[in-house]
Amino acid sequence: MVMSGLIVLAFIAYHLAHFTFANRCALRSAEADPLGHIDVYSMMVTDSKIYFVSGFYVLGLFLLTLHLTHGSSSFFNHSD
After folding, report:
1. DSSP letter, residue 49
2. Cα distance between residue 57 and residue 5, in whole Å
3. What is the pTM of this model?
């Protein structure tokens, strides 16, 4: 769980940096309309074509599911 927790933490940090904080930098400015709105759908389609990014998302979501399943089962499996 420690290793999967660290990978999940890295996944969350990457996801926030990739789709939240990256919108503020110059790399994403071309995808903004004149009002400054970002087209998230086209950003997802473009970035999902990169195999490394897609693989990291699949691994991250899989480990996030395992991590949350383990945590919820441990939470509800308490002994009196």
Report:
1. T
2. 15
3. 0.67
Q: Which residues lie below 8 Å from residue 70, measured CB to CB, with a gap of 6+?
A: 1
Determine contact, residues 62/69, Cβ cutoff 8 Å.
Answer: no
Distance (Å, whole) CA 36 – CA 53: 25
CA distances, 19 to each of 11, 37, 51 (Å): 12, 13, 17
Alpha-carbon separation of residue 38 from 13, 25, 42 (angstroms): 20, 12, 9
Query: Tokens 């939470």 belong to which residue?
Result: 75
Cα 19 from Cα 8, distance rounded (Å): 16
Tens-digit pLDDT profile for residues 13-69: 888 877 776 555 544 444 666 776 777 777 778 778 888 888 988 988 898 898 888
CA–CA separation, 4 and 29 (whole Å): 34
